[in-house]
Amino acid sequence: MIQRPRGTRDFGPADMARRRAAENAMREVCHAHGFGEVVTPTFELSELFTMRSGQAIVDEMYVFNDKGDREMALRPEITASVIRFYVNDLSTLPKPLKLYYVGSCYRYENPQSGRYREFYQIGAELIGNDNPETDAEVISLAVKCLRATGLQDFEVRIGHIGALKSLVQAEIGDRTLASEVLRLIDKAEFEALGRLFESRGLSGDLMGRVRAVAGTKGGAEALDDIEDPEVKAHLKELFETLSLYGVDDCQLDLGIVRGLDYYTGMVFEIDAPRLGAEKQVLGGGSYTLSELFGGEPVFSTGFAIGIDRVVLALEAEDFRPEYRQCDAFVVPTEDNMRKYAFAIASKLRAAGIHTDVDLMRRSMSKNLKYAASVGTRYAVIVGRDEMASRSVTLRDMDTGEQTLVKADFVVEELEKLMAGR
Amino acid sequence: MIQRPRGTRDFGPADMARRRAAENAMREVCHAHGFGEVVTPTFELSELFTMRSGQAIVDEMYVFNDKGDREMALRPEITASVIRFYVNDLSTLPKPLKLYYVGSCYRYENPQSGRYREFYQIGAELIGNDNPETDAEVISLAVKCLRATGLQDFEVRIGHIGALKSLVQAEIGDRTLASEVLRLIDKAEFEALGRLFESRGLSGDLMGRVRAVAGTKGGAEALDDIEDPEVKAHLKELFETLSLYGVDDCQLDLGIVRGLDYYTGMVFEIDAPRLGAEKQVLGGGSYTLSELFGGEPVFSTGFAIGIDRVVLALEAEDFRPEYRQCDAFVVPTEDNMRKYAFAIASKLRAAGIHTDVDLMRRSMSKNLKYAASVGTRYAVIVGRDEMASRSVTLRDMDTGEQTLVKADFVVEELEKLMAGR
Description:
With 421 residues, chain A is an alpha+beta fold. In chain A, 40% of the residues lie in helices and 22% in strands. The first copy, chain A, contains 14 helices and 17 strands.
């Protein structure tokens, strides 16, 4: 037996039906919001990712040299590729550009619950602005994507990088020191931060204010607690616009601090609390990246949703839509009915009805057993009597109820029965 | 500027809309035929592919060692992974198993027209049988997939490995020599074959018969020219069953000889002649592979379609469905109408209408210009007068025709207008 690579997965038909249902529901919401799909390569020059995320990411990537000795990496995320595509080919298009993607990503780390070496993301990037209505558009898109999958229990937390940045930069004149302070805040290393404050003689009062800002959390009413007037105005307008979009249940959380040197303004995260420790299903915010890749500077706002986690969260909510491989299974009662069976199957399939037919030359009873084992709704039985009267018998595989119908109307009759269930 | 890797591609929204339309049409046909989707990892232990295709394929693969020093390869094809999945996890399920896949594959070769280093395939594997009706099921699926994309000009050629194999094995007692002869036929190296015949004193008559069998081609009437009685009976029943499925225009071609040591019976190829030299869009046939991967022996029949080539072939037929990113663009006439505009946009989106809204705080005329540039069908104009009467103006962006409608019925009115176009 040859094993599949560690941390990767195979998905069978029932799994895929559920995964595609969630994916397609989210795709449709993207299109409804005027986002168009882009697809970029699965591997890129590894510098694309180190430029965005720093050299440390190399340890977490699948890196290999191609035969021209260029260092390539399986993509750990897709935003960098989308912005590279934008800089190279799309930058002259009218703004805003609204793009979404669906694809596999790769992370070389020890597999654990909800974390895989090959994982799947859907994400969106709005390129061209960073005003509150842009933020609202992107957050609303994210929330409606998740709602469209059927997910019910999730929490949207919205913050703003500017609140902590402006506080630290206003109070610490030494820019190197200010950067170091922000870096520690970014990593949520508050103990090391405390030591730094002490060793550099920074006021404990400032430390308290940093903690206070990072601790600013709550519903829309908490917006009034924001000190920075620009951040307050921005987020107030954002929450108002979200409300117009029917997205009312967001939390303010100025403690979202990851990626302080990457994000430029609004940041947001969505958690599915039922997932426990690995509960984050989405991360996003506004950023600039095109300059780094040699383009003109432009604001972007985006997010990435972990499809695997969304599927796990749906399962945690016991949302498991029924999967049936076939609606109809055409069963000949004897050998010389087989050709008639193929013609009936062909007719049903042309009408889009998911149909199977005996290919194993089994007896009628064995065929009915097989049809039941793959979860077929209706057996379509074609026998001597049926053929003589140009009819077929439709048997409901759950109830055993049988109906004789004219072969010419088998599609209509079956559709009627299925609609009535 | 950071380039994308050579031989890979980026696809923008208009390209992706056409590619997904073709892909989704084929997916739907797979489901209608009772095939369920599987997804396997993008990389595998490289031995999986060398076991199937021989050591030489290593030179054409992207190979890399993971941190545990296992040799991995980006998949050059997906059949091997599906059968590995079958052997490891699915072999106890009732037969036949009908599986399909869609995914990216990788080939390290010089890029040329219609050949890329990252390319996309859709394929199917029917595991459990090799009788004529199984072959018919798989070929019919393939043909109906291609028809569903809108492709019109393609040729189906069907052959059978058994015709040449049985001839050579019956006439050449020396099994090593018979294998060598088949290997040369497989590679279509007929000159080298002639020299081998001469040097080993094989009869020129046999050489003539090999050429005659490989040259057996034509419509269904050519079936009578097949000498091997088993092959003749198999293919006759196959062609008859295909006809029941409405697939009538297939060609017999016993010259399809590639993969003589891999395929076990029926083989088929589909060409799109308008593509010129690289015209093959599909290859398939019956094979056994599970034994090689440590499973019980079982017959399988499958195919892989090159999605890139199908898309190129559709373009060669001038099949380019219209792409519009949005059906509606909501335009506020002045700043204090913006919130009203967001509410209208939200309503349209909730109804699944592809809708955009001004996020750049542009003037009305600039918004209309932007809406036209992205190919919007209708501008939904919300102004002071409209707001006062709880209405909006729908402007057909192609004709300039305007209609004032009640905001409460904007979804219904827009759907009516779009249906009427």
